[in-house]
Design the sequence.
């Protein structure tokens, strides 16, 4: 089963240390690949 990907809203509530840990765990893959775009920037 694939790990739940974090959203930009999730990141806004996290500390830098938590973000680094999430990245190492692969939880930011969608954001980093551009799949989870911010609604205001989606066209």
Sequence:
């Amino acid at each position: 089963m694939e790990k739940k990907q974090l959203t930009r809203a999730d990141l806004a509530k996290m500390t830098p240390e938590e973000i680094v840990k999430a990245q190492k765990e692969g939880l930011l893959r969608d954001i980093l690949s551009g799949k989870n775009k911010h609604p205001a920037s989606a066209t």
Residues 1-33 form one domain.
